Amino acid sequence: MEINIGQHILNAHQEITAKNKEVLLKHGVLTINLMGSPGAGKTSVLEALISKMKSSVRMAVIEGDLYTSKDAERIEASGVPAVQINTRGACHLDGKMIEWAMQQLPLADVDLLIIENIGNLVCPAEFDLGEDLRISVLSVTEGEDKIPKYPLMFKDSAAVILNKVDLLPYTDFNMEDFYRDLRLLNPDVAIFEVSCRLDKGMDEFTVWLKSKIKTN
Amino acid sequence: MEINIGQHILNAHQEITAKNKEVLLKHGVLTINLMGSPGAGKTSVLEALISKMKSSVRMAVIEGDLYTSKDAERIEASGVPAVQINTRGACHLDGKMIEWAMQQLPLADVDLLIIENIGNLVCPAEFDLGEDLRISVLSVTEGEDKIPKYPLMFKDSAAVILNKVDLLPYTDFNMEDFYRDLRLLNPDVAIFEVSCRLDKGMDEFTVWLKSKIKTN
Known about the structure:
- The structure is a homodimer of 216-residue chains.
- Chain A is of the alpha/beta class.
- Chain A has helices spanning 2-26, 42-53, 70-77, 95-103, 146-149, 151-155, 175-185, 202-210; strands at 30-36, 59-65, 82-86, 112-116, 133-139, 159-163, 190-193.
- Helix content of chain A is 38%, strand content 19%.
- A seven-stranded parallel beta sheet of chain A has the order 3-2-4-1-5-6-7, with helices on both faces.
- In chain A, helix 3 links the parallel strand 2 and strand 3.
- In chain A, helix 1 packs parallel to helix 4 and helix 2 (42-53) crosses helix 8 (202-210).
């Protein structure tokens, strides 16, 4: 009985997500589901990306957090339309929330929509939000053991951003294990070593992401 | 209907947890639910605690991870009995898992049981595991904004360990906001500034934790 109910909820989620995807497709929007731990630096990566891209690409952002609108305020300050979703305790974004947020955005004038998911390596990975690509952010201070410990998120990512590499000298992060475990899990993944503080690696990531944008 | 099913599952969980709690109480075990983000340093804190306590306190550890037994191996190497739970995708530990793990441990010879929960700031906070105290670990590299963004975990913690303070000079962590937001949320919380790498702050935390251990 539990399984039936669960299946019913999942089916409803898939239905809303399929509708969202259709709308995004119609507008030619490339949609990214940006995931990672709390404090991995998702919003900082996003701010750096906006500063590099906004003159040539029409961007919009959906920010997910349990509480506060701190992140949407940071993004709006960088001059890109942003909508904050507060899940009020829920551990991931879902199709219904995305549907609402999409209605607040001028999608006809957007080429790239980035959805910053809840800071959580587990639950967000289990929910398709209708995205074209998943991108995960892992910071070196979290440790390379997070790849085998939380495989689903990294297995399904088109790109992994290894963030805060400026802190490498002060951590025990094992770069060799990181590359080995990640490539074993996901042989085709694009990997970018990034420091938002030092503006390192973001140009390469921007070029990669630009190459994915849909041309009408 | 969804609510009834959910309630049924929650009631079953409370029942198992109450039974677990009874067994722990009978043996006079102080039980800690240790929580925090992936990579906040929960296992490192635990290793440091073991090295300071194991000569005077009989300890045991339950390690929670989605996959791998890396953490239980680290703890066993430090000379304390440890049981690894692999949730295989689930985002928090639950009563049934704890019941099984407790059966693997010599509880009659244990004064302090530490349960290291899944690295996740959201879901673990919603499940009572029969613990006496919750302790959260936040690392400075995650940012002070995690307190208002993930309030439940920090609101219910008897102590918060602010870890990796050796990295403060390389981050934008705002100590003033951290203390203000945390004390606003949880006025009675004990706060420890810790660096496991530099062995800073762990003596103070050890003294505090020892004062909580039950004397038969």
